């Protein structure tokens, strides 16, 4: 099973599998490297079965977080003692040094080291010491100031420190993942693979339908333009926006993008752009038409020279080629799910599996909209801002276009020159539109992927606020098939062989059903299977409750979701 995901949305799910590959998208928020150490550590620990007492002790050690203000208040809820941030910082540092000591003498052993054998203790402690040495060397001889603060251990993860120590020691991300996997006792068939192997700092960019471009993952996920200039509060700066919160208030509506996101892209980190942005304190505002006006001369934007096309991790393509199930994980659609799919060759690898329809390709829908799947438009004579939201069909289109984007069929859905053809492509003709598939094979060409070559199933939490319309999905699938047929005919005309092919593959004596069977495609190929999965309130799920999700939002019931995915992976319906 290959699971592509990039956020913590699936952290609550425990897959009791021995062969699962988690593909992590590049973390565009990472300050130096990507993907983020914390993402890798959390996914690796999720795959650690903890079948022995020592394995559970190691998992507990690597999953431990040092004291933070939140954890101290939770533990000392009845205490009247006043605590400051500096006091918490000192407590975290003391706890870290106590763990780092490793309990060389049994009397002062930290509880986390209990039941961890000497070989494991020596390996883990060696890389923790190496990490600590790197911290000391970085701050050696530097006077601490507001611009150069001391390293703060508050809330730090022991597993993150171990992984960072291994990565700096080996100078290799795969080597660090390999070591962590062995120490955590992860089954040999399960892997966590970064989508891209790079030491470069990559940045995500988005292009809206109105052709405006946005730079930076945070700006994509948390659009926070100022209010109109005539609003007295506009001088106070950006309004704080919670990504998963209510988007119906007037302030929240003004914070939405003025147009839907059309595509995502990778951008090379540009220090010159960064310095210009950080040094600019000029105000910006949003007009009644939804246009962001800023005196930073477009520093939040990007152009074609910034866009890059990183190669995917070869192990990711190998995992896809040998998968018996592919899952597009839930999470932020444009900044978590799609960045792994736009990489060169990923879409082709998924579409060109030996028996593509025998391998379920499952898209997990979210339980609610966020600011990536919502935007606001001006309506009426008073130009009132109205919230618009993507439905399930729009989410499918975004995934399909992203998989096209990294392969030979990039911009396939933009190929029709006029809207008339798009309208005509909605309904299949009487021939079923299937002959072109066999013709492509006869020419040794690859046929454009149908929607179901990318997505065969959609799982959604029952009660999701995202509109799931089976008729709309079916019409889009049929439109895509007609579009692929049109693409083939265009190539035939270029090769001057259209007439001979039509004669070769015309079978007037056979019924439409017989011809579909001959081509190995049935009418069911054009439909995506929709499956509702039992859900629970978001604030009862451990991962969602940490992010303050509302009780009205729904998330997948973890055991039900896992059972459904495993049933589909094993050939179930």
What are its keywords?
about 40% helix, seven-stranded parallel β-sheet, about 575 residues, alpha/beta, 22 helices, 17 strands, single chain
Task: Describe the structure in your own words.
There is one protein chain. The chain is an alpha/beta fold and 573 residues long. It is built from 22 helices and 17 strands. The strands form 5 sheets. It has a 7-stranded parallel beta sheet, sandwiched between helices. A 4-stranded antiparallel beta sheet has the order 5-4-6-9. A two-stranded antiparallel sheet has the order 7-8. α5 crosses α6 and α16 crosses α18. It is globular.
- Average the pLDDT over all residues and give the rounded result: 75
The backbone outline, from C-alpha atoms, is globular
Instruction: Give the count of helical stretches.
Output: 22
Strands of the largest sheet, in order across it? 3-2-1-10-11-14-15
Kindly name the structural category.
alpha/beta
CA-CA gap between termini: 17 Å
Q: Tell how many strands the DSSP assignment holds.
A: 17
- Helix content class: 25-40%
Question: Roughly what fraction of the amino acids lie in strands?
Answer: 5-15%
Poorly predicted tracts of residues: 30-34, 226-245, 273-299, 416-434, 505-525
- Please compute the radius of gyration using only Cα atoms: 26 Å
The largest sheet, given as strand count, sense and whether it forms a barrel, is: 7 strands, parallel
